[in-house]
Design brief:
The structure is a homodimer.
Chain A (H helix, E strand, L loop, with lengths): L9 H15 L11 H8 L3 H13 L3 E4 L3 E4 L16 H7 L4 E11 L3 H6 L8 E10 L2 E11 L16 H9 L3 E11 L3 H7 L7 E10 L4 E10 L5 E6 L1
Antiparallel strand pairs in A: 1-2, 3-4, 4-5, 5-8, 6-7, 7-8
Helix pairs in contact in A: 1-3, 2-3
Chain A binds a DNA duplex through helix 3.
DNA sequence: CAGTGGTCTAGACCACAAG
DNA sequence: TTGTGGTCTAGACCACTGC
């Protein structure tokens, strides 16, 4: 039996070799890396592969290039931690903050869509939607109040049993082979609503971060319209903004 | 005199040709594009160039690819409007919302850095900073209250005259050849501070979107630490989140 | 001028989807 | 098996930097 060829791409291996090289040779901030020609000899791969590896390192802000001069190591050899520009589920966000995610299910129901939902999910007049209402917990604290709406058609017009479900993304992927690819998110600073004051026991003088999100699949179909109220006591969101 | 070769890259031209092809042949959502082999024959370029063009189109969410099957047009043939993940100056943001940007200069002064600034701008103990305080306007409305702090050393320890300056980015670039490349931004929903209530005449029950940003150059040097309070009556920020 | 990164070509083989 | 996109090679010329 043959072991699968190239389980890991050469460019990925080359990238790791280059990181190794930087560490072993103690290349400091703003010091020059070997040229692409030298790297292809050192690593025994083509220039294309070297450039792919360097592109990966550049995206991670580990190196930068100057045309005509060379490739250099950035000031901070630090992994930039990912921010809101990276699409993650609320479950993943809570985990990445170092908390244990939990869910309190409040409601799952088949509904008529509002005009807003019809527009955002590109529904026809006869379509129904299913709305999921949850409180998300971080350890024992309330992290967020989440309302997700999906076209009922996607779930075969059947209200699912959600007791053990944590991540909506994972549920849709596992049960319906629906894969979310990207989202357009609107940031709305707001004060807690009446409902939240009751349900979330949030101080009415604390402001809350409301994210209105439309999630799309690879093909560009809108699949989930969600409104997430995050407790800004617990979450401080970051965004990495690139030119 | 010879006209400059390849002022526009072939891959860019190829991309435009493909868009033209999609439009002229009325290729609808989820319909298939010619294969890469066919495209290279049609466009008279190599496969590498075709793939570069397709990569550009994929990033703009105009097409999507499925390995083994082909390349398809996305549901909405619509330019995704850029959001906060794209680094723009406040001046550019105001313009892109369709307003005329304006600036009211409140203060420019040389100061001792706070411990927070020392940490965020990686200063040494003896370094000074220059802080710029402005009100930014969108037509005649108050758009934001902006406090920008830069290491004094960057400006040759000299407090500049800023009367006619709009964009800080452009000022640093033109006057000191300093180019901002990316920023790490923290989103902080907050209530207006005392100072803002006075200066901005903002209703104290309205919440405000506070962005704490650290701006870096290509090399990874922190250059500007800014605190921008945006009037959330006027601005609704979007983020495009990608997996 | 030589050396560097940026763009492009031609051709190869691999992995995946569908008949 | 065929056709597709994904990865990789070898080699070319261009654009920019600095001597």
């Amino acid at each position: 039996m043959k072991i699968k060829d190239q389980a890991v791409h050469l460019s990925q291996k080359a990238k790791e070799k280059i990181i190794e090289y930087i560490e072993q040779n103690h290349i400091q901030a703003d010091e020059k890396l070997p040229s692409e020609l030298e790297l292809q000899k050192m690593l025994g791969v083509s220039r294309y592969t070297v450039r792919e590896a360097l592109t990966l390192l550049e995206q991670e802000r580990i190196i930068y290039k100057i045309q005509g001069k060379g490739t250099y190591v950035t000031k901070r050899f630090i992994q930039i931690e990912s921010g809101l520009e990276k699409l993650e589920s609320t479950t993943e966000i809570i985990s990445s903050f170092g908390y244990e995610p939990g869910t309190v299910w409040l409601d799952v129901s088949l509904e008529e869509p509002t005009p807003d939902m019809i527009k955002k999910l590109k529904l026809s007049q006869t379509d129904k939607v299913i709305t999921f209402t949850r409180i998300r917990k971080a350890n024992d604290d309330i992290a967020a109040f989440c309302i997700d709406t999906v076209p009922a058609q996607l779930l075969n017009n059947h209200v699912p049993q959600m007791d053990n479900v944590q991540s909506m993304f994972k549920f849709l992927e596992d049960s319906f082979n629906i894969e979310i690819q990207y989202a357009v998110t609107e940031i709305i600073p707001s004060l807690p609503t009446q409902e939240m004051l009751k349900e979330l026991c949030i101080d009415k003088n604390k402001s809350v971060l409301l994210l209105h999100q439309i999630h799309f699949d690879k093909e560009g179909r809108p699949l989930i319209y969600s409104r997430d109220y995050f407790n800004s006591e617990i979450f401080r969101f970051k965004i990495n903004r690139l030119k």
